[in-house]
Amino acid sequence: MPPNLDKTVIVVIHRKKNFFSEIEKLFAENTRMYTREITDKDKIADNTVYIVPANYHALIEKDGTFGLDVSEAVWYSKPSIDVTFESAAEVYGNRCTAVLFSGANQDGAAGLLKLKQAGSLTIVQHPDDAEMLEMPQAAINLDAGNYVLHNNEIFELLSI
Fold it and tell me: What range defines the domain where residue 25 resides?
């Protein structure tokens, strides 16, 4: 991602609370954008990659901050992609771009549909490129994506 994207990037990855992960380091090494894990009530800033922490749902609040929530898992997942996408649809409406990649359950499909219905640009990873096709296929089944693209096509579209 270019360093002056003037956008906020939110990454929701299913991961376990006590499982060691270097996901923040991986993102930091592959972008010149500032990368950090979300903490409760963080002010949302441009040119930042936010990673949702394990065992919390991330909500986007109307005051431009993140809210972390400890409610029950959605589709056996906490963080839930649906929770974040749905709150983004409510707060930002048509001003989002959302991409749903590989996953082992349906989390993210309903939230992506809400974003599409709000007028946001929604992209689904082509199942042929997915390590686990359940998540992108669920989004395709709901017609939640404006586009169904292969990985290289996604990155080409996002770099415009």
Answer: 8-158
Whole-angstrom CA distances from 23 to 30, 47, 106, 115, 134 are 11, 18, 22, 25, 22
Please state at what angle helix 109-117 crosses helix 134-141, rounded to 10 degrees: 40
Instruction: Please say if the pLDDT value at position 3 is more than 90.
Output: no
101-117: per-residue pLDDT in tens? 999 999 999 999 999 99
DSSP string across 63-124:
TSBEEEE----BTTBSS-HHHHHHHHHHHHTTS-EEEE---SSSTTHHHHHHHHHTT-EEEE
Q: Which H/E stretch holds residue 33?
A: none
- Total domains in the fold of the chain: 1
CATH value at residue 123: 3.40.50.180
